[in-house]
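Quick start: read one record
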Amino acid sequence: MSSNKSNTKSNNTEKDDEFYEMADSYIALANKQGKEVIQGKVSATFLYAAARFNTFLVASNSSSKKEFETGKDDAIQYFMDEYKKMLDEHFSDYITNYDSYISNNN
């Protein structure tokens, strides 16, 4: 991601208390919605919203349409790499804690 990458990465993405509180609020919303509609739909809407917001983030940090357009592939790769790292982290956590996490849902 040309200058977009540095702009995106320079935003405060540190996993501090505020980061986890914000994530917890999204998870709470997903859990609430998951009681009203199928969980797959909740997941799809969160992915859609993240894609939409991240596109806005890159666009709003671009100095021009051309910069935004030429940085598209790098931006997508950056977000996919970050998502993959986070997803892998949570899968590992669930593998380690499967019985305690899932037994509460049955």
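The domain at 37-106 is CATH 1.10.287.3020 (Helix Hairpins).
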